[in-house]
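Recall the central idea of this unit: under ordinary conditions, the amino acid sequence of a chain determines the structure it adopts. In this exercise we apply that idea directly, starting from the sequence alone.
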Amino acid sequence: MSGLLRSVGIVANLGKRKALGLARELASMVEQEGLDLLLDEELASALGRPDLARPVEAMSPDLLVIIGGDGTVLRTCLRLKDNRPLIMAINMGGRGFLTTVEPDEALSSLRTCLSGAFSVEERMRIKAYVDGCGLPEALNEVCLTCRVPVKLFKARIWKDGQEMAFLEGDGLIIATPSGSTAYSLSCGGPIVDPGLRCLLITPICPIRPLWPFVLPPDAEVVVEVVRAREPAVVVDGQEVYELQVGSKVRARASDRPLKFVKIREQFYERLAKRGH
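Accordingly, the structure predicted from this sequence is:
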């Protein structure tokens, strides 16, 4: 039995082919090692183990195994109540940048985790507030836009109290290094190594030239909605919150990063594959 890990939680996207079978194998290994096992409620039902069912919000295992694509990782991380668990994300999607393990490596990677022979990569998150009300911490990005397609979004942007830009376009993305390969990249933002700490400010289809910014991690960004039709803020592409004209969104680097298990370096390998 591992002296480093005492409990393992497993979350799986059962819409992914072979996810259930892989989850069953991993769960069996965890129990054979004598560790406490927790399963998300849907997975526990599918495996016939209701005794192990826990909502993600109630999970706080030493290791959390997420089986799915980047969307599964983002949804799960938004539901976590704390940043204590180590996260091992298994890629059952496409060219996921948040997943760190391929399916054929899953069992050996779990053994590596149980032995303690792995490194940890901290992934920065964004803490944002809308008119003083806190939003869930974003692993990829906070996006400000209009619910109504092709309507103009106007906003003022400040850094540490100093106005830095006026935006007229489709919206604005405030991204982490992890999010630099997601929506921000599609809008012309730079690729940033996920091991760095910084904030990326990427405009979406601006009418006038407005280049992306890379800001230090201690910066506070404030965005004031000046004009927009049904403005909204979207956290990690998953959760949508209404804004009003005059609303202010404040964002900064969170002091609660997530800790991902890194068995080997894959980030640049996946970047190379994405280019083909």
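The helical segments are 19-32, 41-46, 70-79, 106-115, 183-186, 267-274.
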